[in-house]
Design goal:
Number of strands: 19
Largest sheet: 8 strands, parallel, barrel
Subcellular location: Secreted
Helix content: 25-40%
Keywords: Disulfide bond, Glycosidase, Hydrolase, Membrane, Secreted, Signal, Transmembrane, Transmembrane helix
Radius of gyration: 23 Å
EC number: 3.2.1.39
Structural class: alpha/beta
Distance between the termini: 42 Å
GO molecular function: glucan endo-1,3-beta-D-glucosidase activity
Strand content: 15-25%
Enzyme class: hydrolase
Amino acid sequence: MASFSLPFFSLFLFAAASSTVFYIAGRFLLLPFSLFHLLFHFSPFIFTPFFFLFFADSQSFIGVNYGQLSDNLPPPSSTANLLRSTSISKIRLYNADPLIIKSLANSGLGIVIGIANGDIPALASNPNSAAQWINTNLNPYYPASNILLITVGNEVMSSMDQNLISQLVPAMRNVQNAVNAASLGGKVKVSTVHSMAVLSQSDPPSSGRINPMFETTMKAVVEFLKENESPFAINPYPFFAYQSDPRDETLAFCLFQPNSGRVDSGNGIKYMNMFDAQLDAVRSGLNALGDFKDVEIMVAETGWAYRGDSNEVGTSVENARAYNGNLIAHLRSMVGTPLMPGKSVDTYIFALYDENLKPGPTSERSFGLFYPNLTMTYDVGLSKNSQTPTTPTTPTTPSPKPTAPVWCLPKADIPDDQLQSNLDYACGHGIDCGPIQPGGACFEPNTVKSHAAYAMNLYYQSLGKNPWNCDFSQTATLTSTNPSYNACTYPGGST
């Protein structure tokens, strides 16, 4: 039976799912943490999903993060239509993009809008700036656009910018006062978002403590949240926990798969997944600050990369699907955590789309649940028509690339509309689809299935022959049988 007693070491903490350019420079922090505390810094799990639905309890929902560091995103109106076709109930923006906010009007979706770190000084020093921000970004759209929360900054304390940190609470108060002046106090909440690096201790969860260097400001933040009944927002990512400790038992613990558990030496509680342990460490840290048991915790970001560089372990479609699916199932169960039993936690999955302009390793650009063409990267039961839970999957490390010739083809009985979507997506990524055009060697038979098969295989062969290049929302499979016919040659071969 594993415990939380693990050695301390130093390493870079990488805030992988951040989506605002204002704090990228502060994302790398060289800090000493126990291994378990690193695991806490970012967090995901894995129960292959039920679908996203509202619960009677207002805390029970699944939302998604809508980042915009990309040059290939669909128009906001298309995204709004996509969201309406899913059971996603809320969405978090990192800004207050008017086109997106307007596109979500009368959609029934709850909306979180964000204030950039760079705007905090002006808001802190001038109440009129806060009033103007509310007049510009909230009042014109509410209540048609169901804005629920304004986040003032993202991971401000982790930036280690003492001047910015000192201005956080004044900015939050001025924004709250402006919300109140608009007669929206209690309807639209105000908070800020933290990384797990605000904890100096989290091993075991019962000993969770806020880092002393942040304690004064953090206490003021939490007092503000208590006063206004706003949530404490945190960004946990177990994905990076596994990368720092790539053992099978760590992966199972992070993905919420069967494992031997880890015992909290402080209270004897046995934890079976990283998510619960992370949240309880935060709960312990807040409780240690004072009487803040009524301040709810909200997960502002969590996710799992479905693709990564060769040195990024655990990046696979299977693990991403398992993590997000198991997380959803755990939240829907309403079991809660050992220190917060019997209730779910508001959770926003990172992310709706990949953001192809984000710097860093490949994983940074590989968290999206949907492709820009609006098809699923992988299926976790988001569609309103996907209401059958799938069987939990076993955690996997990335499959090796095949060494024998293989081809990527559609699975049997895939409907034409899905095949057409696959065809459009593949040909839209720069591959040569000339052979399936009229007069081409592969034009006949002139069917969607035949044309999609050629395009999907060429996409797979052209993009590196990785397993995730032959997924197409679980509608494709690899085969060792050469599908070439007559003069139509399907590219293939060993890597």
